[in-house]
Amino acid sequence: MINKLVSKIQKTNAPIVVGLDPTLDFVPEHIQKKAFAEFGETLEGAAEALWLFNKEIIDATYNLIPAVKPQIAMYETFGVEGMQAYKRTLDYARSKDLVIIGDIKRGDIGSTSEAYAIGHLGKVKVGSNVLSGFNEDFATINPYMGSDSVNPFIKVCKEENKGLFVLVKTSNPSSGEFQDRLIDGRPLYEHVGEKVAEWGATHMGDSYSYVGAVVGATYPEMGKTLRKLMPKTFILVPGYGAQGGKGADLVHYFNEDGLGAIVNSSRGIIAAYKMEQYAKFGAENFAEASRQAVIDMISDIDGALKSAK
Amino acid sequence: MINKLVSKIQKTNAPIVVGLDPTLDFVPEHIQKKAFAEFGETLEGAAEALWLFNKEIIDATYNLIPAVKPQIAMYETFGVEGMQAYKRTLDYARSKDLVIIGDIKRGDIGSTSEAYAIGHLGKVKVGSNVLSGFNEDFATINPYMGSDSVNPFIKVCKEENKGLFVLVKTSNPSSGEFQDRLIDGRPLYEHVGEKVAEWGATHMGDSYSYVGAVVGATYPEMGKTLRKLMPKTFILVPGYGAQGGKGADLVHYFNEDGLGAIVNSSRGIIAAYKMEQYAKFGAENFAEASRQAVIDMISDIDGALKSAK
Lengths: 309, 309
What we know:
The structure is a homodimer. Chain A has helices at residues 2-12, 29-39, 43-61, 73-76, 79-95, 110-121, 147-160, 176-179, 188-201, 220-229, 267-270, 286-308, and strands at residues 16-20, 67-70, 99-106, 123-126, 129-132, 138-141, 163-169, 182-183, 186-187, 211-215, 235-237, 261-265. In chain A, helix 3 (43-61) crosses helix 12 and helix 6 (110-121) packs parallel to helix 7. Chain A is an alpha/beta fold. Chain A is globular and about 60 Å long. Chain A has an eight-stranded parallel barrel, surrounded by seven helices. A two-stranded antiparallel ribbon of chain A has the order 4-5. Chain A has a two-stranded antiparallel ribbon with strand order 8-9. The two termini of chain A are 28 Å apart. Chain A has a single domain (2-304), classed as Aldolase class I (TIM Barrel, Alpha-Beta Barrel), CATH 3.20.20. Chains A and B meet through helix 3, helix 4, helix 5, helix 6 and strand 4 of A and helix 3, helix 4, helix 5, helix 6 and strand 4 of B.
């Protein structure tokens, strides 16, 4: 799956991923009305609204991008009904041949991590049947509990040719509270990064590992260090756009082959129609605004990578 | 909700929680057969089997215990259908007036953490309605991303009188890989413990904070240190029983008031009928075996607390 991600990035010339993190506030009124007319102002109605919203955005952008990254929390907030919208979104993205990064940030001890891994990346046995739960291609995971929380994910990834992105340095302002604390003279996130490289060495694709890392766009200096520390690790970079990261900040997240990183934007793409820059599209054409925002983001990053050469 | 937990622990004299972490392997054949006869060997059939299993265990134990702790991973492994069984389990436990600790180990940045918090502990606005997603009483969360990943959970907890258990020192063998690393001469888990106490001071119940900590039974010396570092923090203690922790190891997790900790057992209770000690009950009476295992666990911990006095 890392090979597929790399090849799709090369084909689209777009090392980006669209974060499908909808809130009801992002969903234009005409879509909300349609969903509520059918299901009422219920969890089911909200889930339908998210799904209709996502579908249009996927339709408008899928041929420009290699991957989508639905943030499961935005669906989980609507309970089981929301999870249903998450699953429909995954299935639809798959039908468009997009690589799916489930932003689930799971992590637990041994057998419990395995249950998460099976549910999201693997297959589960029910009687004589072997079935898929959510079926993402990659999942984000939290390393706080150490190797025996990560290894069950790697095991399932090996069986299924799937991959992970392990949190190393997150994009939020207080990420330094624990991640930046010095251990033997080096910040915790570097120790985690080293572990990610070590875990990754056990499950390699052609040029990159199936085990990637999450490093926020908001800390470009740390991104530069981590890039060197984990040369074969693909880096998923959140924090572009709405959180403040720009293309020029991101050049050091990439290797000299122009690969090695994939930059996420969520609000900046899916709620583009609410920004002054794209307001001309109007709420009715929100998905066209998203398409334009994708084109602009690709060009921003491509320009930054070219001028860095 | 922390006051309710304390008062229920006092009423039952049972500082324990039953971990509802079923796998299909734990579900006796006659229940599997019943579920598969109705729904086939499908995700729905598996979910039904888990739910029927949980219901009998709750029926057999609810009047002995203050709380249950369903581990969401065991449901998530069966996709959306599994999540439905999780939700049915929560609703049934609530109807029996049990305190519900959702073992979800979530955590993300700002608005995403808030979405998790709303989905699991709070209420979500849909049009003019205000609705509940999963509706647990407590949730476990992961602190790796720092304060701005935890604060949105605390905000929702304040609005709803609900609580948290933050991972501090987990029970698994490799938990030390990052958690035990020394920062300014002290292990990371102590720094996290101090933060938990600080977060907890902002949301206090009568004698304990709404913000608790997870400290594994498998590290009793560390439990002792953390107990002193976080005097007003309720400690959720996994790792009893199947993972190796015994009542005698746990006395230092409690304060002198006999409170301050709640010990979880999962496999040791719900799969008791598979253990030699309880085999006499037979698979048909698995729930009675669970009841006996609860009685024995309460007596083990009560004995340990008494002989420590």
